[in-house]
Amino acid sequence: MLYSTTTPQAKRATLRELLVPGTARQFPGAFNPLSARLIEQKGFDGVYISGAVLANDLGLPDIGLTTLTEVATRAGQIARMTDLPALVDADTGFGEPMNVARTVQELENAGLAGCHIEDQINPKRCGHLDGKAVVDLDTATKRIKAAADGRRDANFLIMARTDIRATEAGDTGLDAAVDRAKALVDAGADAIFPEAMGSVEEFAAICAAVDVPVLANMTEFGKSDLFTRAQLADAGVAMIIYPVTLLRIALGAAERALDTLAADGTQSAAVPDMATRARLYDLVDYEAYNRFDTGVFNFQVPGTPAPGPSTTGGTDG
């Protein structure tokens, strides 16, 4: 009922325990709090919160338009809805090194288990678009050092993302990514997120080069093929994110249903594809509220057992 009873500190410890090289833990992206609970119910290891999704949810493109307040608030709403650890995209840290330190503390306050901070210039853009540019090594490492120095909980995960692979062609880009990953670890990164890798072999090269967990981004319509969990585990990857998958599925389904509604004048043909009322009530845990106060939930959902008699004398909610 209400929110997770697992403390943020416990979630951070769990995340640390999960991220073992070669385990390829799967973290689907949640686009709202209820989808985080669905991810948990389906047995996944953790929740990812994408900066692109947070921006898109506001009707904005992923070009650095969201603020720290917006990201921390929404990410906190998602994280508190699940017992799973949640990793959030903190873009470039929302400013200079001092701002990066504050970003980490605000995300700690919001209950996140960790964040990743990237080495793109400001304003940044989606990691799978062309025309990206990265900051110099000194600026990139200062961001990560500020993040590591700013945290108060030693278990809050600081992950460094590097986009340098896509800024240079061929082996030169991979070599640059390996070199930068090593430098970011030396600066205090607990894990590495090499963005837009071109092959499983490139992921394996990054994994072999650093002694911290490595993340693989399996976003659709991007520069990386959609490798399987087994392939990425064999490469040594510790964590896989699917940042926009659920949002894209939901939007696709919504668009098809709206087309049906417009064409038929009724949503009847779309009903079989919907989550039922009973399923929705299960996700929001109505029964727990019933046990807490039967005055809140004293009616029967179709397809479920009738609730017990009210003990509070309340009216239908």
Automatic annotation (TrEMBL):
Keyword annotations for this protein, in alphabetical order, are: Lyase, Magnesium, Metal-binding
Annotated catalysed reactions: 3-hydroxybutane-1,2,3-tricarboxylate = pyruvate + succinate; (2S,3R)-3-hydroxybutane-1,2,3-tricarboxylate = pyruvate + succinate
Pathway terms, separated by semicolons: Organic acid metabolism; propanoate degradation
InterPro entries, alphabetized: ICL/PEPM, Isocitrate_lyase_ph_CS, PrpB, Pyrv/PenolPyrv_kinase-like_dom, Pyrv_kinase-like_dom_sf
* Cited Pfam families: PEP_mutase (PF13714)
Q: Which domain of life is it from?
A: Bacteria
Which protein family is it in?
A: Belongs to the isocitrate lyase/PEP mutase superfamily. Methylisocitrate lyase family.
Tell me, what does this protein do in biology?
Answer: Catalyzes the thermodynamically favored C-C bond cleavage of (2R,3S)-2-methylisocitrate to yield pyruvate and succinate.
Spell out the protein name for this chain. Methylisocitrate lyase
